[in-house]
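Table S2 (text version). Query chain:
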Amino acid sequence: MSQLLGALSFLLRREVRERYPTPYASIGELIGLVASLAVYWYTARAFAPGFSEKGAGYFHYLLIGELTLFAPLALLQGLPRMIRQCAGNGTLEAMLAQPVSPVRVLAISGGAQLPLELLRVLLTVALAALFFGFVIPWRAVGPLLLLQLLSMPVFLALGSIAVAALLRFGRGEALLGYLAAAGAILGGAYFPTKVLPPALQALSGWVSPFSLLLEGSRAAIAGTPEWLQSLWGLSAWSLLTLPLAALLVRAAFASVNRAGRSAVG
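Corresponding structure-token output:
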């Protein structure tokens, strides 16, 4: 347990150094968050003043989508980025040679990214409440946390599958970015999925963890019971993706160890 906590602490400190190399970087992120909120606010007022979805205006709709996906996208896109960084600074071989399960290595690495994303969520909520009157009902906090917790294994598994592809083929990050953007858009991060063609509605509703998480989170905030359906859907996604991710990651690590090098440039 102490080794696990030590590894998490080391990776978290490294993440902080890379994300905030100087105090100006943290100030810049704060300014960037306020600017993004202002863009959402004035966009909602200018183009969608009469918008209402589950009792929320367009500013609230956009912001809920953004907040909901902070941590999942950090896992999905952060793990391949970390592997690429390790390849660049020469520490990838040491990581691959660790006498622990490769799945555990990625789980620890993913876990080290979550505290900063949680801090980012809390800071965004505080700024939105201070400047734009954004409020999340207290009754929704429990369901929202539960949805986030159940989504973590899904996006950790998907990020791990992306790592396996990166180790084997040396590429795929750009495609992953496109798929993540498409998943967020079709999942309803920026507009309700009911405006999509029926075929795309069905696709996003049944085969997208983005849609399950976003729709569940909005239902929780609205106080409707549909968020419980998302719990079952995310659980099913975990059962499907975690064994597949473990299989592919072990195979990729074994292939790299046999070859003595990875395909990551």
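Notes on Table S2: The mean pLDDT is 82. Residues 76 and 155 are 5 Å apart (CA to CA).
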